[in-house]
Amino acid sequence: MGEVSEYVESLDGAAQEAVGRILARARSLVPDAEEGTGYGMPALRYGGSPLISVVETRKHVGVYPFSPSVIEALADDLRGYHVTKGSIGFQPDRPLPDHVVDRLVALRRDEIDAMRS
């Protein structure tokens, strides 16, 4: 078991479900992703770079795609969520829609692929 799996198992209830759902979608889109860390957070890594981290914070669940440009590309889809240059925050009872998660992960994966080529 890795850092991400252990972290998800440590969560309770709605937070565990919300974090686990996003990470499961990311794994299905990027099956080569490995568990590790990124900037000290449990993260899925791809191609030697952090792909995505999803963690419970005091105020919300935070999604960290490690890319301001990915967040900018999703600006229209993220209206109504707490968005910063590096993160997206949501409440477990108002999760990010699947199509937004899928696009976020795909954009970050493609960004990592472009850096590697």
Task: Walk me through this protein's architecture.
With 117 residues, the protein is of the alpha+beta class. The chain has a single domain (3-116), classed as Alpha-Beta Complex (Aspartate Aminotransferase, domain 1), CATH 3.90.1150. 43% of the residues lie in helices and 24% in strands. The chain is built from four helices and six strands. A six-stranded antiparallel β-sheet has the order 1-2-3-4-6-5. Helix 2 packs across helix 4. The N and C termini lie far apart (30 Å).
Summarize the structure.
The protein is α+β, with helices and mostly antiparallel strands. It is built from four helices and six strands; from the N terminus they run ααββββαββα.
The chain-level mean pLDDT equals: 96
Number of strands: 6
User: What is CATH's topology name?
Assistant: Aspartate Aminotransferase, domain 1
Portion in helices: 40-55%
Helix-strand string: HHEEEEHEEH
Sheet with most strands: strand arrangement: 1-2-3-4-6-5
From the alpha-carbon coordinates, what is the Rg to the nearest angstrom? 13 Å
Task: Supply the CATH class.
Answer: Alpha Beta
Q: What shape does the CA trace take?
A: globular
**Contiguous runs where pLDDT drops below 50 for at least 5 residues:** none
Beta-strand percent range: 15-25%
Write the CATH architecture name.
Alpha-Beta Complex
Structural domain count: 1
Cα(first) to Cα(last) distance is: 30 Å
> Main beta sheet, described?
6 strands, antiparallel
User: What is the structural class?
Assistant: alpha+beta
Number of helices: 4
Q: What's the multimeric state?
A: single chain
